[in-house]
Amino acid sequence: MSTATDRVPTAREPRLLGQTVVLIGGSAGIGLETARLARAEGAEVVLTGRSSERLERAASDVDARSTAAFDANDSPAVEQFFKGLPGPIDHVLVTAGGPAYVPLLEMEAADVHRALGEHVVVALDVARNAAPKMRPGGTLLLMGGTGGRKISRDLGLVSAATAVLPPFTAALALELAPLRVNLIAAGFVDTPLSASYFDEEGLEARREELRETLPIGRVVGPADVAALAVHLMTNTALTGATFDIDGGQQFVQ
Questions:
Q1: DSSP-derived pairing of the beta strands 66-69 and 134-145
Q2: 161 in helix, strand or coil?
Q3: Phi, psi at 196, each rounded to 5°
Q4: Digit-coded pLDDT (tens) for 173-230
C-alpha cells in the first residue's frame, strides 16, 4: 500500500522587500510596469516623469511612495530631485527619452549632440546624484536597444548612439562599484512610446509582422522588460553587462 505525501507550497519572501526603487520615466510603459512588479515584490517606488497628470494616475495605480515632475534632460532638476529625496534608495531605472530617427544630412549640430549624448548625459546626471544615496550593491539600470545595431539610412545616428551604451555601461560600473550598473537592450516593445512612431494602421501592421516573424511568436510587452529589470535588481552578481530582450528580433529583421 502506498501513501501520498501532501506537498504544501512554501511561500517565498518578496525579492525587494524593504527596498526603494526610483523610476526615471515611470509614468507609463516600461517604467510603470517595472514599478508595478517592484511593488508586488515588496518595494516602495518613486515615480518621475514630465507630466504631473500622468504621474498622478500612475502613482494611484501602483501606490507609489512619491512622485516628481521634471524633465530628465534638465541637469539642475535631476540634481534637485535627488537632493530632496529621502534616502537610502536601492535601485534606479532610467527609461526617459527615446531615439530620434532623422536623416544625417538633415541634422543640425544641436541635433547631433542630442542624438549621441542624450542617454549618456542623463545617465551620468542620474548616477552622479543618485549614488550618494544608494545602498552598496544597489543597481542603476539603463535602457538601450537592439534595433540600432544594424546600419540603415532610416536610423540616422541611432546606430552610433546604440554602440556607445555597452562600453559606457561597463566603464560606469567600474567607477560606481560596489553599486552595480547594467544595460537593458530592447527591441520593439509595445508601449505608448513605440505607438507614437506609427499611425493606428501602421502600429497594428507592425504588431502583426512581429507576431509572424519573431521566434517567440508574439510581441514583447513592457511586463517582459519589467521582469528582466527586477531580476537585474535582485541578482547581485550582475554588473557592467548588456542584456538583450527583443524576442529574437535582431536575428530575423
A1: unpaired
A2: helix
A3: -70, -15
A4: 999 999 999 999 999 999 988 888 888 899 999 999 999 999 999 999 999 999 999 9
Return the C-alpha cell found at 245.
530582450
Q: Which of 143, 146, 231 is nearest to 184 (CA)?
A: 143
Burial of residue 139 (number of CB atoms within 10 Å: 0-12, 13-18, 19+) = buried
CB 215 within 8 Å of CB 248 = yes
* Distance in angstroms (rounded) separating the CA atoms of residues 119 and 231: 22
Tabulate helix, strand, coil % of the chain (nearest 5): 45, 15, 35
Contact 143, 184 (CB under 8 A): yes
Strand partners of residue 68: 48
Q: Tell whether domain 20-245 is in CATH 3.90.226.10.
A: no
CB atoms closer than 10 angstroms to residue 124: 15
Instruction: Give residue limits of the domains in the chain.
Output: 20-245
Residue 235: in which H helix or E strand, if any?
Answer: none
Q: Which three cell numbers stand for residue 229?
A: 529589470
Q: Which residue has the cell 553587462?
A: 241
pTM attached to this predicted model: 0.90
Number of H helices, E strands in the chain: 9, 7
Query: Taking a C-beta distance cutoff of 8 angstroms, is the pair 98, 193 a contact?
Result: yes
Neighbours of 129 (CB within 10 A): 18
